[in-house]
Amino acid sequence: MSLPPRPATSSPSALAKAEVIQPADYQYQDRRSEPRQDCDDRGALLYTSEKQVITCRIMDQSPSGARVALDNVGAIPAEIWLIDLDTHMVRRGSAAWSTPTRMGLKFNFVQTLIPGQPCPQRIPQDVFDVWMKLTGQTTDTPPEKDEGDVLYLD
């Protein structure tokens, strides 16, 4: 069985006409594997290779990614640490996309930092120090001297 012949067209533009069907914008807003939660957290991006700290607003986040707003994205390194100053979470990842004032991040490591506790083993000291500084904690308190079993009498 053969197909009927194709009708001849008189102009090449007749072949080029095609109807483009695009889904509504809301269908492209979130194509991620897990939903993002809206937030407005204070944050900082740490580019460890350049030792650069950039303040940002965390607009939405999930365990595997976040969208941040900042003044100017600039050059983006391969590894980025996001420090959430409101939840005391640090996340390591990379840029998934960027515009001049926004960036989407995908994470490969997440850790909660607890005020007053020492730096966790898997967190670089630079990241911990920036978190301490930005949250107003001091690291320069001298260690208490152990005076042993001393009894003071008046």
Describe the protein's architecture and organization.
This protein has helices at residues 12-16, 125-134, and strands at 37-47, 52-62, 65-69, 80-84, 89-98, 102-112. It is mostly beta strands. It has a domain at 34-134: Beta Barrel (Thrombin, subunit H), CATH 2.40.10.220. A six-stranded antiparallel barrel has the order 1-2-3-6-5-4. Residues 141-148 have low confidence and may be disordered.
Show the helix and strand layout:
Blueprint: H1 12-16, E1 37-47, E2 52-62, E3 65-69, E4 80-84, E5 89-98, E6 102-112, H2 125-134
Antiparallel strand pairs: 1-2, 1-4, 2-3, 3-6, 4-5, 5-6
List keywords for this structure.
154 residues, mainly beta, Thrombin, subunit H, 2 helices, 6 strands
Question: Average pLDDT, to the nearest integer?
Answer: 80
* Major sheet description: 6 strands, antiparallel, barrel
Estimate the strand proportion.
25-35%
Assign the CATH topology of the domain at 34-134. Thrombin, subunit H
Low-confidence stretches: 141-148
Form type:
elongated
Enumerate the strands of the largest sheet in spatial order, edge to edge or round the barrel: 1-2-3-6-5-4
The number of helical elements comes to: 2
Structural class: mainly beta
Q: Kindly provide the radius of gyration, computed on alpha-carbon positions and rounded to a whole number of angstroms.
A: 26 Å
End-to-end distance: 114 Å
| CATH architecture descriptor text of the domain at 34-134 | Beta Barrel
DSSP strand count: 6
CATH top-level class of the domain at 34-134: Mainly Beta
